Amino acid sequence: MYKIEVIEVTDNFKDVAELVKELLIELEPSAQDEIECTDLETIAKKLLNSARIWAFIAKHDNENVGVITLHECAAIYAGGVFGEISELYVKPEFRSSNIGDLLLNSAIEKGNERSWKRLEVGSPPPSESPRTIKFYEEKGFECTGSRLRRLI
Fold it and tell me: Which of 107, 98, 87, 139 lies closest to 3, judged by CA?
């Protein structure tokens, strides 16, 4: 088992950007060139400084091994203000080591601090990523369908 420290990011935007880049490339390898050209560090800095999102990084021996980002939403169906996980990533060699649990616990603590009614996350179709669905279900999440998007 690894000795992991989870810290809330307040100023190290590059670390967040690097881990999110790894996540995006893993999810969509065919878009690697486009992802590499995107200034994720500037985006992370802008969003984290605006207090529109929060990020936590998991570290092992001073190496960044995972990240979770979340943001605040509001909806009548949700009973008011709630949180949504934007990104959750653990480096492949550190998976199945409870790092995802630690990151998720940090998100839940942030939700309690902000009085959120719930925490949501978009999910891939169960047939494409049953391990991801199982992870969230084991943490008390209920599957309510996936999400659609349209770029504007």
Answer: 98
Give 103's pLDDT tier (boundaries 50, 70, 90): very high
Distance (Å, whole) CA 138 – CA 18:
28
Task: Tell me the three state secondary structure of residue 57.
Answer: strand
Q: Which two tokens stand for residue 43?
A: 């985006």
User: What does the alpha-carbon distance between residue 17 and residue 38 come to, in Å, rounded to a whole number?
Assistant: 10
CA distance 61 to 5: 9
* Pairing label, strands 119-121, 80-90: parallel
Dihedral angle computed from the Cα positions of residues 45, 54, 69 and 30, in that order, rounded to the nearest 10 degrees: -20
Task: Determine which helix (DSSP H) or strand (DSSP E) holds 19, and give its type and residue range.
Answer: helix 13-27
Structure tokens at 106: 């940090």
> What is the average pLDDT across 65-81?
95
The pLDDT tens digits of the residues spanning 104-146 come to 999 999 999 999 989 999 887 778 888 888 888 899 988 887 7
